[in-house]
Design brief:
The chain is built from nine helices and twelve strands. With about 290 residues, it is an alpha+beta fold.
Amino acid sequence: MPGRESVRPERLESVARLKRTLVAAPMTALVGIRGVPASALQRMRRELRERGHPIAVSTNTQLRHAIEEASEQRPALRPLLEHVVDQTAVLTAQGNPFSLAGEFARTRSPTPARGGEVAPKDILVPAQTTSFKPGPIVGELQHAGFPAAIEKGKVVLKRDIMIVKSGATISREVAGMLTRLEIFPLEVGLELRALLDGDTFYQPQVLSVDLDARRADLSRAHHQALALAMEIGYTTPATIPLLLAKAHRRAIALAVGAGYPTKATLPALLARGLREAAALQNLTGA
């Protein structure tokens, strides 16, 4: 760190502590904390720490120095430098990076826009009957770009509309109307910026995997493969018990149909005989 002699000791110690953490941690993630209220951030940090994922918050300058120094011992850390922007914290963890990304996703929740924010995605407003009473609200909605009208004494939005495109700025006027319509287009929570697992570097989009959906896909594929193997009689440790049971059922059905007596078929043959006798008795009237 340049000019170390003019840097306060506590800052040098903070950088040294971060460096030790970065070198030793099996998995390191950079986390965006912009917009997270202090109380919510404290709660998230506590919950993650209890799961063995502590978060350290420092200035970006200190974090960059720590990464630069740590990368001399662990070069795989260097790609993290370009993701130290805005308000950033560093998290260390063990385990599966995809599971960790899922934990981050669960910290995020919808929040209303105030105006001036950039829309992270297209903001779509569906056609609907609103809860507003007819009055000045109709003109306010129309002035903000919403297709408002009065129908049967109710304020309605007559058609679906993309009120703000992805990447565009949300105006204060539109933000106010969205909030009144209970449409919350933004999210607040921890944002995964980048993750290093061992020597493998991950961009966040690579880790955005719906694990429950993937598990469901694997389960469905397993059932379909098993059904196909059963249909063609392909023997595996999984299909042999099922194939034997299927063959046994067919053999019993064939023996019963042919009237072949065995210990397994006698009950079915006797039951069939009784049914046939009763039917014959009904026909003869005896």
